[in-house]
Amino acid sequence: MSHLAYSNLTLDQLTPDLLLHIAQYLDIKSILQLSMTCKRLSTLVNDEHLFRRLVERDYQLTYKAATNTWRSLYKLAPMDICPHLGSLPETFPQDKQHPQRHATCDLCQQPSVTYLSLTSLDKQMCQACVSKLKDNQQLQGTCSVMYNMDGQNLYCFECSRAVGKENSDMNEREKAKQLLDQLQPPTNGLANSPLPKPTTKAAPTDDPQDVQRRKAEHIRYIQELRLEDMAIKHYLVEKNWSRNWMMFRTREGTPPPGPIANYRLAKNNGQLDPELRVPYDKYRPAPETHADIISERLWTFLVDTYGLEGRAYSEDMLVGPDYARLRECVNEYKRSIERYP
Fold it and tell me: Which among 135, 225, 296, 330 is most buried, taking Cβ atoms within 10 Å?
């Protein structure tokens, strides 16, 4: 859609994605004022997608503790959290976990290794080489957070301090612990034992029945993508289960998923959680959502095939002010096919 076309839209015609895009460029005072203009915009002050972007914009943070929310993190004004931890992956490759100390520095070959680079460069270095980090062409693009193999902790050379210590912020501690659990020597006394040689395993194969089942279920998925009758009732299916079903359909040797885990979409009282994130567009990936939206036709097939743990949540249940945001998201999802030829 052209810029001119956007300028002719009324507030009611703005999609949730476009509203989010606009709001992320406003200061927090303007967002609060905007949220009070009408009922539809009142959800902005609790929108986790929006506050995640605001935290990254204003504090350069891209991670938080699992028990925290992006909104509460923004209110804390977290100036004392190391932002550079966020550039490290949640899970390191197997060959980087519980590393063996090299005999010499990978850069100067001196026998005094102290730090391990945690990026793909995978260098073990002495204190002298690390102190020249910014000037060393071999280390351009290296994350400033490194693993101190002497102290078995993480040190950020941009923040000039150890990160994740007991007196540091809870969000930083949790992120650092998640990384250190993969780096520190195991407690079973095998820290200095040689690493096992990698073995070559034959790729898992399916028996003919599994091959046919994969093909049949993937055809059903393709039919779902091509479905244009959006008047059909739609249901929510838990995201992780949906991912597991996708893996089963597309990767040979992957086992089928168990029952649909829809209990994860509910609050403690069994009612659907109104704070769930769902996709706005049928054809765009939405990795940061809690649930996928599927037609009643596909839902019936999946429940008959795999079973259900928890309740079935259809769009008919999205009634009342608490579910106004979810209702609008589902409506936008169903309208999204009109944007494609």
Answer: 330
Tens of pLDDT, residues 105-143:
887 888 778 888 887 556 788 888 877 765 554 455 567
Distance (Å, whole) CA 278 – CA 291: 5
Each residue of 5-28: pLDDT tens digit?
A: 445 666 666 777 777 788 888 888
Amino acid at 127: Q
3-state secondary structure the chain: CCHHHHHCCCHHHCCHHHHHHHHCCCCHHHHHHHHCCCCHHHHHHHCHHHHHHHHHHHHCCCCCCCCCCHHHHHHCCCCCCCHHHHHCCCCCCHHHCCCCCCCCCCCCCCCCCCEEECCCCCCEECHHHHCCHHHCHHHCCCCCEEEECCCCEEEECCCCEEECCCCCCHHHHHHHHHHHHHHCCCCCCCCCCCCCCCCCCCCCCCCHHHHHHHHHHHHHHHHHHHCCCCCCCEEEEEHHHHHHHHHHHHCCCCCCCCCEEHHHHECCCCCECCCCCCCCCCCCCCCCCCEEEEEHHHHHHHHHHHCEECCCEEHHHCCCHHHHHHHHHHHHHHHHHHHCC
Question: Could you tell me how far CA 136 lies from the centroid of its own chain?
Answer: 33
Domains of the chain: 3-79 (1.20.1280), 87-183 (3.30.40), 208-339 (3.30.2230.10)
